[in-house]
């Protein structure tokens, strides 16, 4: 039988836990590396509906992008739906393993997947940490386009219903682009410092948007849920490794949308 640690060891070849940003709670969230695995499921988030889906599918290892436990737990009061979910995970003998900023920073990880999705050329590291590891990427668009055209380009390439455009000039010419997956708003100054034409990241705060406009940079916010790309890419990797290593485990892709927002037009 295949154990959790065998799958984790393979994942760590691509997404080493040690490159995660300081304080990022990656790795085992609940469970044991010595648990035997019969079925694994990939997901962006671990939410109650995802756990119910895992139980229904007979999954005993969940691999998520966003960590299950971001902050210390002061009790396990089941009146709190989040804590009731933890209890359900434990009761059903499910191990949860999370790969967060170590996926963003990894070579051929989330940032590179997004660069490919965006069709960027001449891709380079962007936003290096103190160890010289980049959490983002920067590159060139296939052609020069206006800020407004660029926003629609991002929308189409990411296959999402809407984006938010932050710019002082809809006709500004965009060629060079930097991005951070998920919520990378704190890195926008680096895009300005590197004289990039545009920056892409999710969860841009209202007042920060004003500052971005004043700086002259164009920013496109496609939302945080675009990181769902993780679950598809890791699903594909697990299928490949399952065959190569004769794990003989089932590989599932979570079908639950964990996007908290509805786009109404």
What tags apply to this protein structure?
265 residues, alpha/beta, Udp-n-acetylmuramoylalanyl-d-glutamate--2,6- Diaminopimelate Ligase, Chain: A, domain 1, 2 domains, six-stranded mixed sheet, 9 helices, 13 strands, 34% helix, 26% strand
Number of domains: 2
- The span between the termini is 50 Å
Average of per-residue pLDDT values: 97
Q: Please mark out the parts with pLDDT under 50 across 5 or more consecutive residues, or reply none.
A: none
The strand line-up of the biggest sheet is 7-8-10-11-12-9
Shape: globular
Helix content: 25-40%
CATH homology-level superfamily of the largest domain: NIF3 (NGG1p interacting factor 3)-like
Specify Rg, calculated over alpha carbons. 19 Å
Q: So how many helices?
A: 9
Quick one: CATH class of the largest domain? Answer: Alpha Beta
Provide the CATH architecture of the largest domain: 3-Layer(aba) Sandwich
- Total beta strands: 13
The SS-based structural class is alpha/beta
